């Protein structure tokens, strides 16, 4: 009887010990994840090479307030608002040339695309973000709009596109149109990626945006597309960088 009681006591202690170790392990793992993936806008670093085609701009990496690309050119594609004074009609030259090729290829296969919003200055983002905050509050605004300095549009490498099938709007429904599906399957051939895919919202920090294209060059775009990555994956894991100073 004493042996049985002793055995039960030992086993109970063992189970408690295992439980404590498991709990501590889980807490340690969670702590490590927090170090690897900083909370949005809590640990912000300034990008040191904003001209890089692979520059990572998100809720933890921001562009200098005074950054403006030096090679912005007017887009030679169908535009939502065809006005040379509209900064959204400009992209960096390499991205603009690639977008033109993408639009031509889409047209040849029967898909008509429209460029709606490209480059956006820091000052414009201030105005937009503040308006969204007043309209919906900070928490909601952060789901679909970048804080000033954190917008990819400021890089001059990002373009929002649309089509008449969604009344030229920026909507998730674009991803379900024939045009949107073609773009999702072919954008990488021209150096573009869908920056905020549907299944990576918790990591990008933004809702699904099938209309939001980011230029990174054909090589990187193809790797991201084929391996189903996001830009964060590529920069941190494939490139193996822990800081953001590269060409």
**Which band does the percent of strand residues land in?**
5-15%
User: How many H/I helices?
Assistant: 8
> If you compute it from the alpha carbons, what radius of gyration comes out, rounded to the nearest whole angstrom?
23 Å
Instruction: Give the termini separation.
Output: 74 Å
Protein model, in words:
The longest helix has 35 residues. The strands form three sheets. Strands 5-6-8-7 form a four-stranded antiparallel β-sheet. Helices cover 42% and strands 13% of the residues. It contains eight helices and eight strands; from the N terminus they run H-E-E-E-E-H-E-H-H-E-H-E-H-E-H-H. The C terminus is likely disordered. With 247 residues, it is of the alpha+beta class.
List keywords for this structure.
247 residues, alpha+beta, four-stranded antiparallel β-sheet, two-stranded parallel ribbon, 8 strands, 42% helix, disordered C terminus
Concise summary:
With 247 residues, the protein is an alpha+beta fold.
What is the topological layout?
Elements: H1 2-36, E1 45-46, E2 61-62, E3 72-74, E4 90-92, H2 93-108, E5 114-117, H3 122-136, H4 138-144, E6 158-162, H5 178-186, E7 192-196, H6 201-204, E8 209-215, H7 218-226, H8 231-238
Parallel strand pairs: 1-2
Antiparallel strand pairs: 3-4, 5-6, 6-8, 7-8
Helix pairs in contact: 3-4
């Amino acid at each position: 009887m004493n042996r049985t009681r002793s055995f039960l006591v030992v086993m109970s202690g063992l189970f408690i010990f295992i439980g404590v170790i498991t709990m501590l392990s889980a807490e340690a793992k969670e702590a490590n994840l927090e170090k690897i993936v900083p909370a949005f806008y809590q640990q912000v670093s300034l990008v040191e090479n904003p001209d890089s085609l692979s520059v990572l701009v998100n809720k933890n990496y921001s562009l200098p307030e005074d950054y403006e690309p030096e090679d912005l050119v007017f887009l030679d594609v169908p535009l939502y608002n065809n006005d040379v004074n509209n900064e959204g009609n400009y992209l960096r030259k390499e991205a603009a040339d690639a977008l033109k090729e993408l639009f031509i290829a889409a047209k040849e296969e029967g898909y008509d695309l429209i460029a709606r919003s490209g480059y956006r200055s820091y000052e414009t983002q201030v105005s937009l973000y503040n308006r969204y905050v007043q309209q919906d509050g900070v928490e909601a605004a952060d789901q679909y709009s970048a804080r000033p300095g954190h917008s990819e549009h400021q890089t001059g490498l990002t373009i929002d596109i649309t089509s008449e099938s969604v009344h030229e709007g920026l909507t998730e429904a674009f991803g379900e149109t024939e045009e949107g599906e073609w773009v999702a399957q072919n954008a990488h051939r021209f150096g573009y990626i869908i920056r905020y895919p549907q299944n990576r919202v918790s990591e990008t920090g933004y809702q699904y945006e099938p209309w939001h294209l980011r230029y990174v060059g054909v090589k990187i775009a193809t790797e991201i597309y084929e391996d189903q990555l996001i830009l964060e994956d590529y920069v941190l894991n494939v490139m193996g960088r822990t800081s953001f100073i590269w060409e």
